[in-house]
Amino acid sequence: PVIRREDYKAPLWQVPQIALEFDLDPAATLVKARLTVTRAGSHDRPLRLDGDGLTPRAVSVDGKALSAGDWRMDDGVLIIALPGDDHVVETEVEIVPASNTQLMGLYASGGLLCTQCEPEGFRRITFFPDRPDVLSRYDVTMRADKAAYPVLLANGDPIEQGDLADGRHRARWVDPFPKPSYLFAMVAGNLACNADSFTTMSGREVKLGIWVAENDLPRTGHAMKALKDSMAWDERTYGREYDLDVFNIVAVADFNFGAMENKGLNIFNSRYVLADPETATDPDYDAIESVVAHEYFHNWSGDRVTCRDWFQLSLKEGFTVYRDQSFSADMGSPAVKRIEDVRVLRAAQFQEDAGPLAHPIRPESYMEISNFYTATVYNKGAEVIRMMALLLGPERFRKGTDLYFARHDGQAVTCEDFVKAMEDGGDIDLSQFRLWYSQAGTPRVTVRPSYDPESGALTLAMRQTIPATPGQDVKQPMAIPVKFALFDPATGEKHDGEEVLLLTEAQMETRREGFAQAPVLSINRGFAAPVIIEAEQSAQDLAFLAAHDDDPFSRYEAMQQLMIHALLGSIAGGPLDSAAVIDSIRGTIADAALDRSFVAEAVRLPSEAYLGDQMQVVDPDAIHAARDALQREIGVALQKEWRAIHAECARNGFSLSADARAARKLRGVALNYIVASDAEDGPALAFDQFDRADNMTERQAALAILASGASGERAQALAAFYDRYAGNALVVDKWFQTQALSLHPDVVEMVEALGQHPDFTLSNPNRARALYAAFAANQWGFNSKDGKGYRMVADAIIALDKLNPQTAARLVPPLGRWRRFDDERGAMMKAELERIAATPNLSKDVLEQATKSLA
Ligand code: ARG
Ligand code: ZN
To answer: Which value does ipTM take for this structure?
Structure first.
């Protein structure tokens, strides 16, 4: 059952209009659908309506009930032979939201009824050609018990509402914009509204609503601010105006992903809506801002212009991630935002690109499309858009996007259409650049500078190689923008500014003149291309860049490289050469011109997982030991400095200002180093911060530090945290997650015990991820030598698959990394994958991930 991109066929029937009527009830919801269908082109094929778990109770065509012989079912699909070109088809089904544990289609969450239709959930609600190139106008009537479901929301504009007999009421919503079925949404429940408004650039007033449980209302202010900022930003930056009279956001507790851009009715995982200082960290605030923006931006990049088929997913996701990243950069520190985005890309996407599940941003085939909502499609997809924006420059890029939106408004299009609009609007040839859409794998760019003192010339020799990935043994050279600068080590001056050179060949050389001594190379500045740079840079050059590079990303990167060199040297059996690292950190924390938020990023050690990615064979124990030792040395050597920072960064009274947030972040880093130094009062200091904090950022940072140690304060803090927040699901998630991520020698047993905790459940995706996805990301714990970590995660996958295959499938990739480890670990991981793959009645979702991981 493999679907291939090359097999795309245009739909045989269109559905310009659909009217839906819902009699809502968690135990039995009646769904009546009235589809106006028209034959597309001339053919004599029947109408095929997708269904998943649906049994038709009645089918009629043009008002006449069909008898059993006039329609048939084939693997869930309802097939009706129709004589003419235009008909009205009506169906009736009954569904059970309360037993929908997959959280796809119409389901119950808390006391709410809500929907998730992307990518193929609509077919679990009603019979329909459930594919994104069938665009329809929706007219939706909802009926429900008024006491239990006082609020009834759907896409578009509210048209009528009124009371019915038996304590029920009704609402009718009409969405004037034709849309694919994956953007359908509906919510019924007892919700309170944070109501506001936004006046668009043409002067239209839009009613905004953020709908949550009554007692969560005080936690919706940040999301509302993010929404209004996003609306203004999209007008300013892309000329995109909102197009309906209302825009609603609903928060639900049980949600498979982050959020969903349904037209005019975005549905969110509550973790990306609710925040106050007591319960949300600064990164939580940032995530809310960026997810609210992401979903709002989809209104144009996704809803008004949508995808022709699911192979084009990056068309909307890559572009929209790029848009939300740019928005967050504009709202805060562009330098720090770039560092964070690259960290995510390297942690998630580079690993994906290097493993058995590697795929191009526009995949060629899939068994289950839900498995392709990946870091590759989203984050690498965003990097590809970012490179085009760089190559075109801001003005031409804007011309390209204007052309894209104008040309394709109301259409379902392809990645190729996007690139074509960039070419036409930006007046550029992107033929070779298109390989970024078809070739998987992270390119490696080797850069060798050689200086000739005679002529004062520097030659840069560059080479690119793209590793083989599943199904792609041989790769063509790509078009890679190489952004670089050359510094005079004596004066610290940049030579001729910054350049972008397009590397188009497997090998290329370039020469620059006029250097009295060998210049220092600053390469892939701003992380302009999503590649791995191999440049043998000396510790001296790295130290120079760490102190002087005016590109903040490259400055950060130089420090990371220094740390990586020291750590890999010691892992390879050499001495731990910490001097250069400590000097650079000392210089960075003493540099008063630097933003503290940047400093906090720059002085932090790379994660254990990222260090693993730098090794041929990952050795989790050696990595942990080396990183621990370096952390201790940095803590000891700069003890006075960390103490001073920790004291200086304390604040009276909470604020969300950039300065206050930066202080909290750097304070956490300082506390970590103090505790890592084994100072006797370290745990007490951490407990004090934990206990006195007036905000979750500082409290959680201290908790995480204590959780990784063996102090008496550890248990005390964990218990106090739990008691303080019991009943607040999002904070209890943090309690599970912090322990699952902790670098404690007994973390495996602790996670095992947490799986039996009364608050643990696999039915809530946030809770399941807080424990098992977090643990699988804990390199040291998950890869414990006895294989217990592997077994535990495999058990969780098998159990969760019965409830929620999508969420279960997301836990498989960590086991798929078996080739990266020693033979013993590799064999144990493989055995778990085999056990999963052999489980009877496995979902397509998990089956695809497990079998591909074994291949
Ligand atoms: N389109 C949503 C977003 O990125 C994500 C939907 C994911 N759903 C899924 N079943 N994979 O904003
Ligand atoms: Zn998206």
So the answer is: 0.97
